[in-house]
Amino acid sequence: MTGGILLIIIAALLLFGPNKLPELGRAVGRTFREFKEATRDIVEDEPEAKKAEAPVAAAAVQPEKADPRRLPE
């Protein structure tokens, strides 16, 4: 386990160099933070969307009122 992490760190240093590595880490951190915020927003909005759909569904179930402009059948 530790050997694998060490190998990844060495490969990252060789690929990106010591100067670019902190910048790369910040970019990855920002990406994860934005992903978590977006996920949290989606989870929080879900119950509100279900509440908003409920009155629409209830209105669709109610019988339609007779249109006064139509002739009775």
Structural class based on helices, strands and sheet pairing: mainly alpha
The major sheet is characterized as: none
Write down how many β-strands occur, each being a DSSP E stretch of 2 or more residues: 0
Measured by DSSP, the beta-strand proportion falls in under 5%
Order of helices and strands: H
The low-confidence runs, each spanning 5 or more residues with pLDDT under 50, are: none
What percentage of residues falls in helices of 4 or more residues?
Answer: over 70%
What does this molecule look like?
The chain is mostly helical and 73 residues long. Helices cover 82% and strands 0% of the residues. It is built from one helix and no strands. It is rod-shaped and about 85 Å long.
Topology:
Layout: H1 2-61
Brief summary:
The protein contains one helix and no strands.
Output the keywords.
single chain; 73 residues; mainly alpha; rod-shaped
